[in-house]
Amino acid sequence: MDERTEDRRDDVFVDAAALAAELAEEHPADIAEALDEQEPKTASAVLASLPREQQVEILDGPDVDLTSELIEALPVEEAVRLVSDMSADRAADLFRWMDEPARSHLFARLAPETQAELGRLLAWPEHSAGGLMTTEFVTVPSSWTVGETLRHIRETERTRETIYAIYVLDPLSQKLLKAVTLRRLITGEPEQPILDVAPRHDPITADPLMDREDVARLITKYDLLAVPVVDENAHVLGIVTVDDMIDAIIEEGTEDAQKFGGMEALDEPYMEIGFFSMLKKRGGWLSILFLGEMLTANAMQHFEDELESAIVLTLFIPLIMSSGGNSGSQATSLIIRALALGEIKLKDWWRVALRELPSGLVLGSILAALGMTRITVWQLAGFHDYGEYWMLVAATVGAALVAIVTFGSLIGSMLPFVLRRAGVDPASASAPFVATFVDVTGLVIYFTVAMVILNGTLL
Amino acid sequence: MDERTEDRRDDVFVDAAALAAELAEEHPADIAEALDEQEPKTASAVLASLPREQQVEILDGPDVDLTSELIEALPVEEAVRLVSDMSADRAADLFRWMDEPARSHLFARLAPETQAELGRLLAWPEHSAGGLMTTEFVTVPSSWTVGETLRHIRETERTRETIYAIYVLDPLSQKLLKAVTLRRLITGEPEQPILDVAPRHDPITADPLMDREDVARLITKYDLLAVPVVDENAHVLGIVTVDDMIDAIIEEGTEDAQKFGGMEALDEPYMEIGFFSMLKKRGGWLSILFLGEMLTANAMQHFEDELESAIVLTLFIPLIMSSGGNSGSQATSLIIRALALGEIKLKDWWRVALRELPSGLVLGSILAALGMTRITVWQLAGFHDYGEYWMLVAATVGAALVAIVTFGSLIGSMLPFVLRRAGVDPASASAPFVATFVDVTGLVIYFTVAMVILNGTLL
Q1: Do A300 and B282 touch (CB under 8 A)?
Q2: Which residue windows are transmembrane per the record (chains A, B) (predicted)?
């Protein structure tokens, strides 16, 4: 028994050294991927056999789950040393992610200045500019030359991966004056003042509480590699870099797609999330929508007499309801996305309504034409007998379709404004929510139209 | 009359000069935004009054619609001069966008070498790495030192906005050996060979025909600012930069959201697309879904006898149908996103099926419990009378919900695999498509379950 355990340990040891040698020439992102497939014990052994610089690069990768696994599997002195070398934003992510008590144990072992730096970062909300920023950035006084700046970077900033721009400060007030990209810096002559190679415009900056979606908009609009986060005194607190922003944009996209599909955002990859966590995130919304949809049964009960006297009306209920849902879902997805991209603002709601009203009328008329043709063809060709008053039935279906599609387009386009106004993410389950709402109102519209048109004949 | 025209021309002239002076200190992206709000004539007059460098920066912005408007409104010599100075990828975008005959007229006036360069870029498909790349990049032979490289950039590459990395080539074969980021370059000593500051791993490269979504995945995974596009001989053809990639990721997100909402991707902002173009993109899918949904009428007709003998069954049709649709839409949006992010591959379809089957059963059981409780409470509290066999009706609704939600989850999760396999974008209208499919089959399931459970009583 003891021998077998020994053997197994040896195996792990041999594997780790061999794997480390094999992986050493790979890109850190590929090494991380390979480590992710190993047991934490093996993975941390491989990590320990890699060159120092690569260790930090791997831990600085975007997979915080892997980083925390590796850190927890390492001897604590080693873990402390590596966490101190990690970029500050990634280390903060790690502490956001780790579970207690490992989290507190590790934090307590860090040097006081590292604790203070991480504490400042962790104080900001996770999805704000402050929560995304890193504190590794380069500032120089505006009195320096290009050559002095380059020498400073060469001598003191060797290890910083995130030098995309140099931030030029007023030597007295330490206020941010200009941002100089590396490209501009190296195209300057060494003896030129740094302000000579700075752009004319003021630096683009973010407030620490700015939401990550707004930071993404800044970075996209101004084609930035990094945006400095400044406080109310124009002092630089940190920078948000473009690679973190891409990760955030993709994460937002996934969350929006999932919310839009009618569930809570999973926050974890589909294959990795636990079965019951997934059920919870899906079952909650599914039940809420189900409870909402129960109102259709109430609506139907209300019209039960009409149903019994004109059973032919029931044949078209699914068709009419789904058309309202589809038109609402189109309008909602259009407007959510346009709002998210900043193409339209809250105050544009009436412009949107003025576009959706005629759109709905035209789209509804197209479907009405299709629906009425269907009934007419089936009736005349003898596929089905819709009864003596089939023309009135066709008219009812047509009129109801125009009304419901118009209503669906209007409600679908206005709901995102209402949600945004109320401070709720417009993507939250909105397509199924619109569909449910339109289903219930659609039934009422359908039967009301029927009572008007079929009054004195079928009803 | 003549006098008024004169006056108006004067106004435009004064406006343009004043506006140019006012905007000169702004960021080019903000100037572009201001110009976008002006008439093309005024905007091009303002552009002409700005410093040369800013003119090119504005035209290099992401709004190709604005760029083409400005270029078309300028005198042709001026337009030719500016297009020659634009970055090659933006100029290629411009020619992709412009209408004939302006496009051909402008192209014919360009210098032969510019024509050849643009021709090479325009030959690649628009959404491929080749179609996105720009030809402004810096290569140096591997025999150079850091100092030589820096001097080369300073002397010859002043105007290139896209220097994110230096590509080191084999001096003989011109094959790409290493990619050196600017940061690594400036932290090296001037006399060091450039290969000394290169990373250990081989450069990450893209094939010119690689789809933009795959290029985005490379850039995200490896945290790159630019990825070199190389041919089969490892010769660098161009680079795709991170800012173009962000634009592409956001555009893909919008397209996916719109397709998912059940329409064709608009390709233009909601407020800018023409009314009839929008109707076409929405009406097409709406009609297709409507035609599909007509099958529900067929299904209902098929069960008309059952409907007449058990009108109570109709009350729950909308409830049951929408539950199937919602569960299908959840599963579909989860899987589409996981496929898009590469979290799951085509070959994982059976793993997904094995997760969705129990998920569907549990979710369906939850809804069944809710639905049966609703019927029981309403019956016992006297809110509504579901008849003598109300318990059997409740059982029918419950069993149908379990079956339909399970079926919806399975179909919804498998459809993206089928579409991807068939070479179709899984995002294409899939949620409404799944809902339509599940509506029709859901009705059949409902009535079949009813015939089994209610056989000999209501039916």
Answers
A1: no
A2: 357-377, 389-419, 431-454
In terms of CATH, what superfamily is A138-241? CBS-domain (3.10.580.10)
**Residue A432's closest chain B neighbor by CA?**
B326
C-beta separation of B372 from B410 below 8 A = no
Burial class (CB in 10 A: 0-12, 13-18, 19+), A436: buried
pLDDT tens for A349-365 read 999 999 999 999 999 99
Which residues in B lie closer than 8 A to residue A308 (C-beta atoms)? Answer: 311
Q: Quick one: closest CA in B to A298, which residue?
A: B315
Kindly determine whether residue A314 and residue B327, on different chains, have CB atoms separated by under 8 Å: no
Class (C level, CATH) for A275-453? mainly alpha
So where are chain A's domains? Answer: 2-123, 138-241, 275-453
Residue A50: is its pLDDT beyond 60? yes
Cα(A444)–Cα(A459) distance, integer angstroms: 15
| pLDDT tens per residue across span B34-71 | 888 888 888 888 888 888 888 888 898 888 888 888 99
- Tracing tokens 């569960």 back to the chain, one arrives at B327
ipTM: 0.76
The H or E element that residue A228 is part of is strand A226-230
CA closest to A385 among chain B residues: B301
- Within 8 A of B283 by CB-CB distance, chain A residues are 362-363, 366
Tokens matching residue B35: 């110009």
Q: Which CATH superfamily is domain B2-122 in?
A: MgtE N-terminal domain-like (1.25.60.10)
CA of B42 vs chain A CAs: smallest distance (Å): 23
| Per-residue pLDDT reduced to its tens digit, B409-439 | 999 999 999 988 888 888 776 778 888 889 8
CATH 3.90.1150.10 given to domain A2-123: no
3-state DSSP assignment of residue B182: helix
Beta strand segments in B339-451, E = none
Q: Do the two domains A138-241 and A275-453 of this chain adopt the same fold?
A: no
